[in-house]
Amino acid sequence: MATLPSFIKKASILSLGLLSPLVIAANYDVVILNGRVIDPETNFDSVANVGIKDNKITAITTDVITGEKTIDATGKVVAPGFIDVHAHGQNIGDYRMQAMQGVTTMLELESGVLPISDWYAGQAEKGLPLNYGAAAGWTYARIATFSDTLPQATATYFQQAQSRNDWKMDIATPEQESKIIKLIEQGLDEGGLGIGINAGYAPGHGQKEYYALAELAAERDVATYTHVRYASNTEPQSSFEAVKELVGNAAITGAHMHLCHINSTSLKDIDSILPMVNKAQDNGINVTVGAYPWGAASTVVGAAMFSGNGWRERMGSTAENFQLGVDRMTEEQLAEYQANKPGTFIVWHFLDEQNPDDLALLDASILNPNVLIESDEMFWMHMDEEGHIDNYAGDEWPLPQELFSHPRSNGTFAKVLRVYVRERGLLTMSEALRKMTLMPAQLIEDFVPQMKNKGRIQTNMDADIVVFDPDTIADVGTYQDPNHPAVGVHWLLVNGEIVVNNTELDTAVKAGEPIRRDIAK
To answer: Which UniProt keywords are present, listed alphabetically (predicted)?
Structure first.
């Protein structure tokens, strides 16, 4: 990479709101020198210096600047920190693994959670390194309503409910639907970032209930984030039908409806589903889409999609497609876990990335310009001698060697940069960064004003910044050996604080701030 140039186009400089020479001469908290600065919104892409003061980017310049802390970014890319809008693992180790691949903001939007206030209070007590936030979770409202319990803002509440079928498969009575909606409204009043609709985990819900959620989102001017009702290549109850349902509700109500992980819920029907979504977008329907670059998903083994007559045919799966820990399951194991441990998280393989036809299906999702990158990150877990799997909530770093998760949990963004930018050349660096920074920020910034200051390298923006080596950034974890942090991120700043310092995570830095809508008075 070239050293600092003496001349950069004046228009590019002005587009980033550079400070005057007098201000630039000021001393900064942190300066990042000689890096390739890329801003996806303005298309600025040049070697420059970045000055940070009071947690904000306050200068982007070719002038000499100094600061209390200096980062030499020669040969590195300086980009907005990656924003993950689809992250389930909410323990401190989960956040740390994400930090090592350049994530600065982790949001639990698809599943969501309830109660929202309890969740934010709990996360604040953990001293997290990254920004955090969550949507109001519809499945939590359903579980609470059908079980006549109060929702609990933990993943365990969702996992333990997998032994019940009523909330998954029964149509709510008018009274139940009213209670579900009221619980969601309470979550929005408490600052939830929209409505998480894990429809695929409760596919028996009624059309009116799903429509009511879309109406509520439109009324409150927030988005929904949907794991669609069905995942199947055969009709009826196909992936195509489920996505069409989402598009229809968005069109009728005017709600912004986000379609989560189109790569997995489409299975092998992406060539039919993606054009339908693109046509909806072209017609002004407010549907957005996310995907992750893996041919395997991760979910609870007792999920409704893995039940009922003919589910293997619908899903194109046998026990061999299921992975428990780091090993594939047998039919006997699958039956035992579904009957007795249905809340256990497993990995489910649905595409073979070594098969050119399957890889082309995955590529279609990742390369589409309207699809943002989201990880669907999962908890890091451990298994005892009896086969019980628990989410790891400890503070040890590096993570204990025996822990496991889906490799998307620590490698999604690094994999996009390694595979799609460096190795295969299918995305430009700027386009990949747009999908991982600006697009996720824009997804929610209309109703979450904090996000207007993220996903950009511009003056007055939050200093959420990743500095990485474009020649070495890579995912390291695999399905069989997942517990390895990504490599290639040299520095990570969250709200101006250095979380990753010269490739090493600083566990003492607790820079994360809540991302939250205003709380109703």
So the answer is: Signal
What is residue 478's predicted lDDT score, i.e. its pLDDT? 98
pTM confidence score: 0.95
Nearest CA to 81 out of 495, 412, 476, 477 is that of: 495
Residue 11 confidence class, pLDDT cut points 50, 70, 90 = very low
Average pLDDT, the chain: 95
**CATH superfamily placement of domain 82-295+354-452:** Metal-dependent hydrolases (3.20.20.140)
Closest CA to 506 of 495, 515, 519, 497: 497
Show me where the domains of the chain are located: 10-80+454-505, 82-295+354-452
Provide the pLDDT for residue 26: 65
Task: Calculate mean pLDDT across residues 202-218.
Answer: 99
Distance between first and last Cα of the chain: 53
Q: Give the pLDDT confidence score for residue 5 in this predicted structure.
A: 36
Strand ranges for 178-319 from DSSP E: 195-197, 223-226, 256-259, 287-291, 296-300
CA pair distance 345, 331, nearest whole angstrom: 16
Rounded distance, CA 178 to CA 499, Å?
A: 44
